[in-house]
Each structure stands twice: as structure tokens, then as C-alpha cells.
């Protein structure tokens, strides 16, 4: 899975990969000649006192060292560039694909898991790719080359390699086998810790209000301990790996020196050859260790690749046809025999709902809590698809159009106002580039949302800073800025999903009275818990018990809909 995922990107960079390969071959080849040159300096120069030969071979050795440094540096730089670009590509692919998911698919993965997959998992693959490009070529070339060069120095001493190399490979293989399932568990526990941390940060006020600090601290401590325990197990295997391999390496070196010393004394081996053999022995050990390091990292990279592939291979439920319709001219929305259900629910939230939203009209939506009001408005921009029936745009099913084309015709003010960090101008306009911001239209939208007064009181006006989520503003101010963001956009359908609840009565009235001047002949849907917010609507849709109880004007519903009459009476004492 790791190779399959990374190859989708790397296959477009084959010339760079070939260049890295050539540089690694050159660097490794140069490093293999250094011990042999060192042996010649000892045997042909130091032992016999030939200073000229020492200088000549020393110059050649310096040249090989420069080649090695230059080639290896260039290979490292190119490998880093390729692996970082791979990471950027994976993050972009995941982000773009997640944007096509329906609401229930986003819920299935969960924001913490998607964040971990886009950050930590991508980093693991970046690291594996970088190490593979820098080591995967060098390790086998160095290992094989060093063995060949070691055999040239002494066949007798080289027999130790038949035992030592498989022994180190066995230790590395054990660590790889041990850590594979632990890496998967570690990523899952990182997800769980991120979930708890996200909930605690988002719900800080609730935690303090209910004095749950100790409970939440213990909850976080538990998930932290779970992550620590698996991290300690992984660290324990590495703690076994490095001392064990070092013990093998140093023991082998001692045996080589002891055995080689006897051969030198017997005249069967030169001093330079022994020194070169020790250098080649270290190169063999280094190549085995580097290969082992790659094999130890591959399991974690494989786990991360599986998690990323799970996101990328999950098809969006919001299917768009290969040849979608083109949405031309003005758009008019309607629901026809719509049934809305959530995964795992026993009953539909709404069923057999048919209603039109004519241009130039205001439709009020009211009903008890959990009657499906927000679900109704969420299917219009196709945040998820209906189970049965159809959402129609200009008489055609919304599923026949591109998602972006449909959503560009809708301006939505969600139930919970969320503002992105930046300035008021960038938040309202949706543009981070100041050159794309129509500042006059920002002021115009703020005026329509009854937000211009408090914005003008700020020191920097529309250039005032907005913190993440708009936390530096009150609930009512955030709501009005969210409404201004919706008004800034030229749309065919404006949806206010219970977004007037944070406004006082006077502000709400001014906003509703001025709304026709800002939306033009577009359709407007106002979802509310209060009859006062929709009393002047052209039509009011009453929902409850998973169905439509009635549709009509305020007076018509008071006379014909018992549920609406009950809601009105409970709020204002108005009777039939």
C-alpha cells in the first residue's frame, strides 16, 4: 500500500529519481575506494617510508572524498525536495477529497482523525520516502561493494561475515515484526487523544460551568497513558535493537583485530589490509543498519499509507454525473416527495415533503426541537443527499449539477456562527487577498446585517482582527458578521438557519425590514423557533413528528394547523 500510494506521485518525477540514483551510485562508489586507498597509503607509503607516494595517494583520496561529499549532498537535497513535495501532494489530495464528503462521511472519519491523517500520517510517509531515496540505493550498493572489497583484503577474515551479517539482519527483522502492530495502535491512540483534546478545548466553558475539570483531566490522562504505553513498547524494541547491534559490531571488530593480528604476524596479511578490512567491516555494518532502519520505518509508513488510502479510496456519496447539467440564468429551488434519514436511525427525520421556494418570497420554517428544520436546509446545498425524492433546481434534480455550481447559488447562515481568522473584511468577503475584497460591498453587507455600528466603533474598522471562530466577539456580533458574510454574496437562495436567535428584538426587526433591499428577487428561507421571526413570511412551513403539518401564511396556519396554533399560543398567547 505504501509503494502504491507514493508511486502515484513519484512516477511523474522519474528523471529526478534517476538523477538521485546516479548521485547515490557515485557517492557510494567513491566511499568504497577510500579504505583501499588508505591501505595503499599505509603499505606503499608509511611502511616503506615513501613520502611521495603518501602525497600522491592522499591527493587521490581527497578527490574521492570531495566527489562523495558533493554527490551525497546533492542526492540529499533532491530527496528532501521530492519527499516534501510528496507530502504537500498527499495533504492537498486528502483535503480536496474530504471536501467532497457528505456530512455523515465527515462524521464517520471524525475531524481529529482527518487532522491526524493529514499531518502526522503524511509526515511518516514523507520520512520513509526521504530515507528510502537516500538509503535504499546506498545501503545495498555499500553492503555488496564492501563485502567484495573486504574479500579482496582477506578471504580468511571475511568468513566471519557469514555469521555476523545474518545475525544483525535477524535482530532487525525481529524489531520490524514486533513493531508493525504497535505502530497501527499508536496512530489509533493519537486519533483518540486528539478527539479528547479537541472536545475539551471546544467545551472549556461547559467544563468549567459544571465543575468537571478533575473528570476531564482524568479522561485526558487516561488516553495519554494509553498512548504513552504503546510508545514505550515501541521505544523498548529500539532500545533492544541498538545496543544489541553495537555489541555484535564491536565484538566482531575485536575478533577481526585478534585474528588479523595473527595473520600479520604469520606474514599472511599486511597491516594496511587489516585497517581497510576494519573500515569495510564498518561499512557493511552501516549498510545493514541503514537497511534495517528502513525496514523498521516501513511498517509505520505502511500503517499511515493505509489510513490515508482509506480516505482517498472512500468514494463520496455526493455523486456527480460525468456530464453534468449547466445551471444557467436564475435558479429556483424546490423539494419533491423528499425523505431525509440519517445512518443508523430507525425512522426518517422527514418524509414525503414537497414544497417550493419561489423567487422573491420568504419561507418561514418552524417546528419543535428535532423536527428536521436544519436537516431540510442542509439538503438544499447538498451537504448530504436525500434518501428518497429529490431536491430540484429549475425543475431538475440537484444531483444532475456540479456541487460547486449549486452551492454558489446559495448563501447560508448556519445555526452556529463560525468565523474564520483574519480581518472583518476577509471574513465577510471570503477572500484572504485584500486585492479581491470589495470594501464598499463589505460595508454595504455589514449595514444590512445591522453590524456596521459596532464595527465602526473598532479602532481598525473592517480591518479589525478576527480570532479563530470569532472568539473575540460576542455571540450577537458573531451572528451579525455571519449574516453580513451571507449578504455579501450574490445568491439565488438565502438561508437563515435559526441565525436570528442571538439578536435582540429591535435589531432583528431592523434586519428583517431591510432584508428585501439586500436579497433582491432571490428566495429566502428563515428557520426559527419563534413565530415573531416569520410572522410576515409569504409562506410558513410547519414541521413535526417527521412530516409537514401545514403550510400557509401566519393567519391561515392559526386557523388550520393545531401544531402552529400551539406554538404561537405558547410564545405570545395568541389563539385561534
Walk me through the structure.
There is one protein chain. The chain is built from 21 helices and twelve strands. By secondary structure, the chain is an alpha/beta fold. It is elongated.
Percentage of residues in strands: 5-15%
What is the count of helical runs?
21
What is the average per-residue confidence, as pLDDT, rounded to a whole number? Answer: 86
Structural class, from helix and strand content?
A: alpha/beta
- State the helical fraction: 55-70%
Going across the major beta sheet, what is the strand order? 6-9-10-3-11-12
Major sheet: size, sense and barrel closure?
Answer: 6 strands, mixed
Q: Key terms for this structure?
A:
576 residues; alpha/beta; four-stranded antiparallel β-sheet; 21 helices; 10% strand; elongated
Write the layout of secondary structure elements.
Blueprint: H1 2-10, H2 14-46, H3 51-98, H4 103-109, H5 111-118, H6 120-135, H7 138-153, H8 155-158, H9 161-202, H10 204-209, H11 213-265, H12 271-312, E1 333-340, E2 350-357, E3 362-366, H13 373-379, E4 388-393, E5 396-397, H14 403-407, E6 410-413, E7 422-423, H15 424-429, H16 439-448, H17 452-456, E8 465-466, H18 475-488, E9 493-497, H19 505-519, E10 523-527, E11 539-544, E12 547-552, H20 554-560, H21 562-572
Helix pairs in contact: 2-3, 2-7, 2-12, 3-6, 5-6, 5-9, 6-12, 7-12, 9-11, 9-12, 11-12, 16-18, 20-21
Amino acid at each position: 500500500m505504501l509503494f502504491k500510494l507514493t508511486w502515484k506521485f513519484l512516477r511523474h518525477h522519474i528523471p529526478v529519481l534517476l538523477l538521485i540514483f546516479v548521485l547515490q551510485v557515485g557517492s557510494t562508489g567513491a566511499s568504497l575506494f577510500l579504505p583501499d586507498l588508505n591501505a595503499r597509503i599505509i603499505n606503499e607509503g608509511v611502511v616503506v617510508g615513501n613520502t611521495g607516494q603518501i602525497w600522491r595517494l592522499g591527493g587521490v583520496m581527497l578527490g574521492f572524498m570531495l566527489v562523495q561529499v558533493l554527490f551525497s549532498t546533492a542526492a540529499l537535497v533532491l530527496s528532501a525536495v521530492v519527499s516534501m513535495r510528496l507530502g504537500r501532494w498527499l495533504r492537498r489530495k486528502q483535503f480536496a477529497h474530504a471536501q467532497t464528503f457528505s456530512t455523515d462521511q465527515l462524521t464517520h472519519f471524525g475531524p481529529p482523525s482527518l487532522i491526524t491523517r493529514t499531518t502526522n500520517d503524511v509526515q511518516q510517509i514523507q520520512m520513509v520516502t526521504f530515507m528510502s531515496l537516500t538509503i535504499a540505493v546506498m545501503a545495498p550498493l555499500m553492503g555488496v561493494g564492501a563485502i567484495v572489497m573486504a574479500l579482496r583484503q582477506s578471504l580468511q577474515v571475511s568468513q566471519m561475515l557469514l555469521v555476523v551479517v545474518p545475525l544483525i539482519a535477524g535482530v532487525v527483522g525481529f524489531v520490524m515484526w514486533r513493531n508493525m502492530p504497535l505502530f497501527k495502535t499508536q496512530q489509533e491512540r493519537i486519533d483518540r487523544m486528539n478527539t479528547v483534546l479537541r472536545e475539551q478545548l471546544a467545551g472549556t466553558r461547559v467544563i468549567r460551568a459544571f465543575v468537571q475539570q478533575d473528570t476531564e483531566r482524568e479522561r485526558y490522562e487516561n488516553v495519554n497513558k494509553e498512548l504513552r504505553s504503546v510508545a514505550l513498547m515501541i521505544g523498548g524494541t529500539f532500545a533492544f535493537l541498538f545496543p544489541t547491534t553495537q555489541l555484535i559490531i564491536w565484538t566482531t571488530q575485536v575478533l577481526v583485530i585478534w585474528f588479523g593480528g595473527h595473520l600479520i604476524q604469520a606474514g599472511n596479511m599486511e597491516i594496511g589490509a587489516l585497517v581497510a578490512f576494519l573500515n569495510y567491516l564498518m561499512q557493511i555494518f552501516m549498510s545493514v543498519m541503514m537497511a534495517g532502519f528502513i525496514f523498521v520505518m516501513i511498517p509505520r509508513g505502511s500503517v499511515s499509507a493505509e489510513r490515508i488510502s482509506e480516505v482517498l479510496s472512500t468514494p463520496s456519496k455526493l455523486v456527480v454525473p460525468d456530464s453534468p447539467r449547466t445551471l444557467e440564468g436564475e435558479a429556483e429551488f424546490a423539494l419533491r416527495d423528499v425523505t431525509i434519514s440519517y445512518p443508523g436511525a430507525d425512522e426518517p427525520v422527514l418524509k414525503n415533503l414537497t414544497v417550493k421556494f419561489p423567487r422573491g418570497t420568504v419561507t418561514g420554517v418552524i417546528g419543535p426541537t428535532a423536527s428536521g428544520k436544519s436537516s431540510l436546509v442542509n439538503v438544499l446545498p447538498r451537504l448530504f443527499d436525500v434518501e428518497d425524492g429529490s431536491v430540484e433546481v429549475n425543475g431538475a434534480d440537484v444531483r444532475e449539477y456540479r456541487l460547486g455550481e449549486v452551492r454558489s447559488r446559495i448563501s447560508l447562515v448556519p445555526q452556529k456562527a463560525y468565523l474564520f481568522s483574519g480581518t472583518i473584511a476577509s471574513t465577510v468577503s471570503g477572500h484572504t487577498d485584500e486585492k479581491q475584497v470589495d470594501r464598499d460591498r463589505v460595508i454595504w453587507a455589514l449595514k444590512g446585517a445591522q453590524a456596521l455600528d459596532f464595527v465602526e466603533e473598532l479602532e481598525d474598522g473592517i480591518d479589525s482582527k478576527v480570532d479563530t471562530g470569532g472568539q473575540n466577539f460576542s455571540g450577537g456580533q458573531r451572528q451579525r458578521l455571519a449574516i453580513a458574510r451571507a449578504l455579501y454574496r450574490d445568491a439565488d437562495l438565502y438561508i437563515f438557519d435559526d441565525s436570528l436567535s442571538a439578536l435582540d428584538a429591535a435589531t432583528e426587526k431592523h434586519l428583517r425590514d431591510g432584508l428585501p433591499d439586500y436579497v433582491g428577487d432571490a428566495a429566502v428561507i428563515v428557520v426559527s423557533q419563534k413565530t415573531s421571526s416569520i410572522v410576515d413570511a409569504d409562506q410558513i412551513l410547519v414541521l413535526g413528528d417527521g412530516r409537514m403539518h401545514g403550510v400557509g401564511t401566519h393567519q391561515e396556519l392559526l386557523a388550520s394547523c393545531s401544531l402552529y396554533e400551539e406554538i404561537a399560543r405558547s410564545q405570545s398567547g395568541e389563539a385561534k
